[in-house]
Structures are given as C-alpha cells and as structure tokens.
C-alpha cells in the first residue's frame, strides 16, 4: 500500500515537520477556495481598477454588473473609453438593455469578435458571437444524437459545452469560453459567401447550482430556437438503459482478444441511493433502480421549463418544438426539410433520403474504438458520425470540428475493398499514420487479419447489449411498484413540461406512455 507524504515526513524528520507540512497544505486549500468566491473577485476587481489607468470607476462598472477578472479587459476599457460612454448613453442601449441583467459595455453590432478574447468578452458582458443559425435546447435522452447526425448531413456544426471541470471553477463561465472559441474557430467554415457549413448552439445542460448560470444564458443573444422533446417515460427508459463508457480516450492494444476488450467496454453505471448517500458502481447489466437518480439529474434532463426561462433573450414565438417521433424512421427526412426552411440551412439531399431513416445510436457504447499497433492508431467508427470530409472520432460530450475536417480518413476500402461492415462500421486512421501504413504491407496484413476477427465479434456484442435494454412497460411497472418514486416522478415531469404545455399541449396529449403514467398516478393517489 502506498504511504502518504505525511507519514514519510514523520519517519524521515519527525512529527513537528509533518504538522508544518499539513498546515501549509491546509492553507493552500483554503486560499484556493477563497480565490473562487464572488467577494474575492469583486475585491480583486476593485484593486485592478484602482491600479489601472481606467477612466471608468469601480462603482460605475458594478452598476452594469461588470466583474473584471483580467487586466486585458481593463486595457480594452481604457482604449474604448469614449465609445463606451457614447454607447451607454445611446438610445439603442436604453431601448434594448436598460433592464437587462448583464448589459454589454460595448455595442455588439459594432464589434469585431475576431479581435476580442473570450475572457475579455465575458468580463464586458458581451453576448456570444452571433455566427450561428439557431439555438438547439432541451434535455438529454430525447434523440439528440439522431438529430445531430441529420443536421451534420445538412452541413451542421454542433457547438456544445465540455463536461464540468473538477478544479472548482464555474462550469457556466467555462462554457461561455468554450462556445465563444468554437464559434470563432469555425468562423471561416460558416461565414464566407456562400457559407460551406452552418453552426448551431447546443444548450442542453441546465447549470442550476452554478453562480454564473444566469449570466451564461443571458449572454446568448436573441435568435431562433429548436426544442426537441420526448415522452418522459421514454426518456427515463433510455437513461436507465444507457450504456456509459468509462472513457472515450481508451486505447486498446491490437494484441488484446475481443473478450478482453469487451470486458472493459461493457459497463453500465448503476447509480443508486444507499440510505441518504448516492453511490455508483459499474455493472454488466442496466438496473431499474438507477431511475431514482436519473429523475434528479437536473443538470442533464427533465429541466426544459427552467432552461427555457433562463434563455431570456429568446421569445416563445421564435421557438419551434418537435417531438422525437418526428425524426424517427420515414418521418425524419420530411422533418429535416421543414426545419431547413424554418432555420435557413441547406435541405437534405434527396439521394441521402435512406440515411435519414437509420437509428443513430445503434452502436452507442461499443463504438468508436481506438486501437494502437506499432505506433499507429486505428479507429473503428460508426459511419453516422461521418459526413462529407468530416470524421468525428472524438465522441465525448465535446467535439473539435477542426480535427474532424483535417486529421482523419476512411481506409476501409484500402484495407478490405469494401465501403463498410454491416452497412455502418468503417475503419479510420490519422492521415499522418496512413502515410506510414501504406508503405508497410506486413503491418497492413496484421491489422486486416485482426479486424476481420474482431468486427464480427463486435456486431455480436452489439446485439447482446440490445437485448439488455428496458422498455417503457418496464419503467411503468417499476414506478407502479415504488409509490413514492412514482409520485416524485409525476412532480418532476409536470415541472419539466410546464413550458411545452403552454405552447404545444398537443404533443403531450400524443404521448401514449405518459398518459398511461398519469392514469396510474390517479389510481395510486
């Protein structure tokens, strides 16, 4: 067992020095916590403003809810002082931002976003760069993967957030930086006339306990929006059946047997309450008891009403709500044509019609897989994550479009003289590695031999995992046998659906399993 540093110090130089080490360590932790508090940041801003050659006073800046965290922001304020004064007294500002909780210190319509760092934009309450077509908001487990794959086929670039950081920093603030940088990194793809692609902002996390959540959502400017919804019983079914990956960055040696790889890959996360404590463990099968946790996973799902309220710049009349059933099977192609007209993006190609009828999450949890062999990386990928020249290997919550455009290529035809396996599975490689691979016949043959054994085994495993999925009936039966959980679910669903009920009650009325659930709740009550 590995000994702690404190024990090592005691043995080496004695208790006195070990205590001194522990005190120093504790002080560092306290100092770190202080540095992320709101009042510490206000004090830091007060000192920065008074030290800087900035004509705007600390109290003037606080009046507009400005919280400066970097010196570069003060430098820009000093440089743009005259423009700021003109803007804040202009009729345009008074009409649009007089009652806004986070008014911008500069006129957004006159900004050159290419010259403003994301951190400075955040400090000055500048709205996100408006270089995207629409906002796509809602909950997870509503068919997002499918809609994303269809939008990708129409030329869509999804701008989404990274998972929350573990260093105590604000997830909302980091998400603003993430959105801002993605929008600007892909500016050259989406803005040249005519644009080759279009961007859209995915807002599906509701950061309810983040101190900067209101600011993040307030800095998403007025635009059209799309909300994808689903029968909540179906959502709960998908969440309880969800096959989570321990990591999307796992690398498997080509020497491993398929069984060894699937032993690592096939893991369901069993979240459950042990008394008052939430615990989790990996299992080989999904469990229904995890539904209690999923009902309360408020940052990810069942939060549509509160998320909609938070998007204060978007009007109800600018939001289109669609049910997941409209993007499933034969209805998907027509729905995408309708959305293309509504949001002004390229309509799907008639030649791609069949591709809009497929199930996007067929290989969820088992693909992609990254192999390493003789300093070369080989990727098995579901081809729904490939469009035109883009190969989306990085399938975590966040994707980097530049990598998808530039780094990878499909070598299925090169290795096997066929386009894919089982109509979906392709083999990809980094372009720099392909230059090495194509010159080495022995390595090519070894990779081919391994994959010809592995891919059929992967297809077999996919079918096994499919049999483990729950149905809506399973969810209803479980809720029926757990009365308290059933009533809790009813309250969660009603709050979640308040917004949808106000604009599209017909969608709620069409949900078979939710209506059965409501009838069941009546019986229980």
From TrEMBL:
UniProt superkingdom: Bacteria
UniProt cross-references to InterPro entries, sorted A to Z: DUF2972 (IPR021353)
Name of the protein described by the UniProt record: DUF2972 domain-containing protein
Organism the protein comes from: Helicobacter hepaticus (strain ATCC 51449 / 3B1)
């Amino acid at each position: 067992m590995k000994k702690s540093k404190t024990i090592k110090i005691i043995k080496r130089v004695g208790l006195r020095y070990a205590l001194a080490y522990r005190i120093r360590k504790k002080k560092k932790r306290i100092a770190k916590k202080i540095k992320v508090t709101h009042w510490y940041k206000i004090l830091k801003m007060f000192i920065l403003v008074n030290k800087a050659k900035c004509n705007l006073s600390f109290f003037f800046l606080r009046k507009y809810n400005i919280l400066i965290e970097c010196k570069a922001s003060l430098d820009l304020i000093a440089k743009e002082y005259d423009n700021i004064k003109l803007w804040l007294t202009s009729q345009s500002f008074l009409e649009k931002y007089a009652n806004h909780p986070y008014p911008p210190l500069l006129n957004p319509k006159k900004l050159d976003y290419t010259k403003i760092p994301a951190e400075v934009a955040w400090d000055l309450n500048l709205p996100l760069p408006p270089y995207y077509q629409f906002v796509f908001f809602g909950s997870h487990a509503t068919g997002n993967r499918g809609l994303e794959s269809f939008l990708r086929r129409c030329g869509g670039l999804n701008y989404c957030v990274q998972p929350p950081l573990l260093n105590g920093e604000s997830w909302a603030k980091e998400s603003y930086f993430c959105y801002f940088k993605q929008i600007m990194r892909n500016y050259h793809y989406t803005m040249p006339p005519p644009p080759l692609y279009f961007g859209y902002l995915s807002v599906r996390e509701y950061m309810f306990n983040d101190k900067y959540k209101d600011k993040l959502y307030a800095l998403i400017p007025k635009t059209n929006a799309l909300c994808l919804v689903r029968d909540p019983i179906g959502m709960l079914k998908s969440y309880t059946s969800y096959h989570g990956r321990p990591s999307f960055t796992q690398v498997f040696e080509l020497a491993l047997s398929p069984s060894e790889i699937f032993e690592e890959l096939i893991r369901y996360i069993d979240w459950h309450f042990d008394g008052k404590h939430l615990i989790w463990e990996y299992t080989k099968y999904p469990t229904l008891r995890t539904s209690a946790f999923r009902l309360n996973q408020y940052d990810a799902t069942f939060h549509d009403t509160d998320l909609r309220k938070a998007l204060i710049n978007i009007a109800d009349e600018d939001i289109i709500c669609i049910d997941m059933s409209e993007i499933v099977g034969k209805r998907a192609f027509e729905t995408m044509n309708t959305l293309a007209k509504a949001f002004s993006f390229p309509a799907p190609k008639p030649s791609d019609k069949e591709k809009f009828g497929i199930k996007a999450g067929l290989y969820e949890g088992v693909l992609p897989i990254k192999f390493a062999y003789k300093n070369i990386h080989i990727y098995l990928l579901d081809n729904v994550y490939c469009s035109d020249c883009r190969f989306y290997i990085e399938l975590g919550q966040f994707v980097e479009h530049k990598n998808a455009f530039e780094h990878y290529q499909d070598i299925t035809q090169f290795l096997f003289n066929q386009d894919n396996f089982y109509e979906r599975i392709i083999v990809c490689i980094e372009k720099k590695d392909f230059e090495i691979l194509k010159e080495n016949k022995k390595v090519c043959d070894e990779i081919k031999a391994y994959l010809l054994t592995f891919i059929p085994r992967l297809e077999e495993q996919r079918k096994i995992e499919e049999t483990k999925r729950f149905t809506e009936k399973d969810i209803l039966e479980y809720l029926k046998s757990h009365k308290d959980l059933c009533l809790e679910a009813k309250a969660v669903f009603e709050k979640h659906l308040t917004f949808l009920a106000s604009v599209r009650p017909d969608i709620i009325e069409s949900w078979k399993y939710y209506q059965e659930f409501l009838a069941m709740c009546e019986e229980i009550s």
